[in-house]
Here is the input.
Amino acid sequence: MKKILLATTALVATAGFAAAEVKISGAAEMGIVDGDHLATAGFHTDVGVTFTLSGEADNGLTFGSAIALEDGGSANGTTSISTTDGSDDYTVWIAYGGAKLSMGDTDGAFDWAMKEVGIGGSIADDHTTHAGFNFNSGLDGTFDGQIARFDYSFDAFSFAISAEIDDSGTFDPVWGIGFKYSGELAGLDLGVGLGYQSVDLGVDVEVIGISVDTTFDNGLQAIVNYSETDVGGTTVDHWGLGVGYTMNALTLSANYGEYSGPGFTNNGFGIAANYDLGGGLEVQFGYGSSDADIPLAVFGLGDGRFGGVAGDNDSYSFGLAMSF
Here is the structure.
């Protein structure tokens, strides 16, 4: 998810029974983009603001909400203003100790548990929008995208359950469960995630996946994930690998992913180079390359759909990312 920039401010109000805080943060991007999907190179701008609200009750319950607004200009001169179509992200939550209940445009338990292989950033997300990349959305968005997720953390372990309801009452909810481990093993920072989702839409639909990530003392980072989606007995597998290296202000990364199913294989790779100028300003370069066997491979449901244009396709972007 791209960052947004503008300003950061905090308003703090206290009363005898509770404390509340409102924060405003943001990010912006400017640069140039090009690729086989565009007629010619063009300018890219993107601006967004995030409002983060939080509070604490007398009994120790914490609560809050996050609202993200974004306004982006595309390379072909059109403008996408999310505030006009109700598609802005928002989440409301309440928590106590290690337990938390979130509702709204939040991740299902599958996505919550899985780690994506993209490292670093690019203003047009070229390194993570190739035909082999998996955002691990699973079955999120099968219905209206309104998800309820309960998660609980204890020591290095966390688990979550989630549901997304069909408002029409036609189908059963999408159910999900996920597990995560984050700790140190043999001197390495290690993360492991395992997620599962299912729904009955007249045919059984399910997705299961696992991811592993680690960071080394020398600045190297590695992420690998695998998932399997089954729709009525037809299965598509995906695997992805990402590596990154950070030295002082410079971050370099590369990732590769591949979908394979009946009669097709879609794959791609992405690279990113970032240089941190300090103060929230970063130079970003991104490149993505795709190779798809079929014109459009659509499999899965909701946000878990994936696709690619037939043949070899490339894209790149270069510019500045700002955060406040």
